[in-house]
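Example record used in the benchmark description.
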Amino acid sequence: MNKRAEERRKQVLRATLKAISEKGFSVVTLQDIADYADVSKGVISYYFENKEDVFYHLLEWMTDRIFQNEYAAIQKESKAIDKMRAYVNAAFKSPEDNRIFYSVYLEFLAQVNQNERFREVNSNFYKNCWFIGSEIIQKGKSEGIFTNIEVESGSHMIRALIDGCLLQWLMRDDEMLHSYYRDNCYDAIITYLNYKDS
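Model output (structure tokens):
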């Protein structure tokens, strides 16, 4: 796919994200997406098979962007404890970004049981999240910290704490609490990992 075509697809996906976040998953139509993208419905049909295909690619694009951003953040740090802080900070990207992602993501999760393609993307997303957690724990083990944590279960729990804190922040509907939940999330993870600052 050439660069112009890829940019047009992303334009449609960004518009779909905005449309779902403002209108809700169940009521968004292809015409809505076209209107938000400022293109004709024919353009959308050229790049995607149908509305479900647009939604599938949106979920894939959103979750891949999050993984890439979070993984890039931990690569900038050398010590495990700094990688963990970078991971949490990247997950708590900004109130606006987190609100849009999680409000739309929750709509997708409501469809997962009925849609095999959505379920597959969601499964891949969590495998990527667990990969990040595993890499941090393994790094910590090599440094002589996080020694009492099993890598697989530990990586699952780290993501559970991140998502749980972000969802609770979302339910509180107060942007000012974003940093509060971010900092408490980090503290909860560090406590769980039984890390003691020497």
